[in-house]
Amino acid sequence: MNTPEPLTPLPRHLVEKAVREALEEDLGLAGDITTDPIIPAEARGAAAIVVREPACIAGLDLAEAAFRALDPDVAFDRIVDDGGKAKAGTAIARVEGLTRALLTGERTALNFLGRLCGIATLTAAYVDAVDGTGARIADTRKTTPGLRGLEKYAVRCGGGVNHRFGLYDAVLVKDNHIAAAGGIGAALSHVRARGGHMVKIEVEVDTLDQLREALTYPIDAVLLDNMDVATLEEAVTIAEGKVVTEASGGVTLESVAAIARTGVDLISVGALTHSPRNLDSSLEWEQ
């Protein structure tokens, strides 16, 4: 059975920044012109956050922060933690505080939960599909601009692992880099001249001949791009455990198990963050 990565909470500054910007977008210059005229300022209420379908949970820090930004004294009680599973129709949290804050913050809280739970739930499905193979499911940089840190956190909640976060924390020499530089060797010589000793280097290869060439250089990983299962099996044999092997390109829930059985170390799936379906959740008022 695959062992999940330890779940490190989201940094507080990322949570507060995302929530602040989301609330500013929703409230604009005039505030909530529906809730404020209807609800007295001192009125208090309580509600449960309910998932309407089976879910892997992610984003509760953001939901809590959305309500707390509007009512610093709000009580937010988690029933299921991030990374946990919930059945359809069950409550994952309960919130109590000023009624205006609960009603005004509702959509912001649910938007974050819907997006991040959707990513975590899809990731968990991929992780379950490769269970027992030793392969790990990784994300990509195909994320929503401005939300990468949150979306990659949701992947971890679903049991996946993170690929590089940006262009700054790891080297990935892709096909266009190789073409522009005039070959794998030329591209790597420039990287080695500029990169620090702590920087990992991965090279994307499309063919077994490219793989053999890449392995003649001091690299850490190879990205086996759009290879069929038979070619992936041969690539793993050629690599002989000398570098980390990563399969990528067109991976689906239907194909991921067969890819995992080839012996690759990682399978990166762009769909985790570019094509998840938002999870259906709601704020159920308690009378």
From TrEMBL:
One of its GO terms (molecular function) is nicotinate-nucleotide diphosphorylase (carboxylating) activity. Keywords: Glycosyltransferase, Pyridine nucleotide biosynthesis, Transferase. The keyword RNA-binding does not apply. Hexamer formed by 3 homodimers. Belongs to the NadC/ModD family. Residues 119-283 form the Quinolinate phosphoribosyl transferase C-terminal domain. One of its GO terms (biological process) is quinolinate catabolic process. SUPFAM superfamilies: Nicotinate/Quinolinate PRTase C-terminal domain-like, Nicotinate/Quinolinate PRTase N-terminal domain-like. Its EC number is 2.4.2.19. CDD domains: QPRTase (cd01572). Substrate binds at R107, T140, R141, K142, R164, K174, E204, D225, S248, G249, G250, V269, G270, A271. The keyword Glycosyltransferase applies. GO terms for cellular component: cytoplasm. Involved in the catabolism of quinolinic acid (QA). This is Probable nicotinate-nucleotide pyrophosphorylase [carboxylating]. It catalyses: nicotinate beta-D-ribonucleotide + CO2 + diphosphate = quinolinate + 5-phospho-alpha-D-ribose 1-diphosphate + 2 H(+). Pathway: Cofactor biosynthesis; NAD(+) biosynthesis; nicotinate D-ribonucleotide from quinolinate: step 1/1. Pfam families: QRPTase_C (PF01729), QRPTase_N (PF02749). Residues 32-117 form the Quinolinate phosphoribosyl transferase N-terminal domain. InterPro entries: Aldolase_TIM, NadC, NadC/ModD, Nicotinate_pribotase-like_C, Quinolinate_PRibosylTase_N_sf, Quinolinate_PRibosylTrfase_C, Quinolinate_PRibosylTrfase_N.
